[in-house]
């Protein structure tokens, strides 16, 4: 049976007309922007922070790197998984070659508490920072996620040569 895209458009319009959906989506993007700006302005833990990328209502993310990670051609991703409503930290390579190299290295000798991905398709590590966040307390939310993200980065850096 063929997919009826015209019927799907009706459902899509209904979702977009739902004020609560639109308010929540805006709040989630605001959280990601606040996280990004907080990390940019935290001079006690300097990071190069990339642009916020907004997915297809299922994820939003931005990349970052410290001087040490950059030296090793590694980056981190702070990702909001909208479907599972959780914030994640990913370690990725600067390119596919670096991703494969570092995945192999951590696979052989992983001294972190993080579980390595099954294969180096997109990332080396994917760690949950916060699941089912309290979106009502933005200050606490940003503080918790930032601290967990910085801990993730520090742990990775401590395990680099």
> Which consecutive residue ranges, at least 5 long each, have pLDDT under 50?
none
Portion in strands: 15-25%
Q: How many E strands?
A: 6
- What Rg, in angstroms, do the CA atoms define? 18 Å
State the secondary-structure class: alpha+beta
Q: Tell me the domain tally.
A: 1
For this structure, the quaternary state is: single chain
Can you tell me the overall shape?
A: globular
- Helix content class: 40-55%
- What is the N-to-C order of secondary-structure elements (H for helix, E for strand)? HHEEEHEEHEH
Largest sheet: 6 strands, antiparallel
Question: How many helix segments?
Answer: 5
The average pLDDT is 95
Query: N- to C-terminal separation?
Result: 56 Å
Notes on the protein architecture:
The structure is a single chain. With 161 residues, the protein is α+β, with helices and mostly antiparallel strands. The chain has one domain (5-158). It is built from five helices and six strands. It has helices at residues 5-17, 19-41, 67-71, 96-108, 138-158, and strands spanning 48-49, 53-54, 59-65, 74-81, 86-93, 125-131. A hairpin with a 4-residue loop joins strand 2 and strand 3 (59-65). Helix 2 packs across helix 5. The longest helix is centred in the N-terminal third of the chain and has 23 residues, at 19-41. The termini are far apart.
């Amino acid at each position: 049976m063929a997919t009826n895209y015209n019927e799907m458009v009706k459902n899509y319009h209904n979702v977009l007309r739902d004020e609560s959906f639109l308010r929540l989506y805006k709040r989630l993007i605001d959280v990601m922007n606040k996280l990004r700006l907080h990390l940019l302005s935290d001079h006690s833990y300097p990071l190069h922070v990339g642009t916020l990328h907004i997915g297809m209502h299922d994820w939003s993310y931005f990349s970052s790197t410290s001087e040490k990670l950059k030296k090793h051609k590694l980056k981190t991703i702070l990702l909001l998984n909208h479907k599972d409503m959780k914030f994640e930290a990913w370690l990725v390579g600067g390119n596919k070659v670096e991703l494969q190299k570092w995945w192999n290295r951590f696979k052989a000798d992983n001294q972190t508490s993080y579980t390595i991905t099954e294969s180096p398709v997109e990332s080396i590590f994917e760690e949950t920072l916060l699941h089912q966040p309290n979106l009502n307390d933005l200050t606490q939310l940003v503080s918790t996620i930032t601290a967990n993200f910085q801990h993730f980065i520090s742990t990775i850096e401590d395990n680099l040569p």
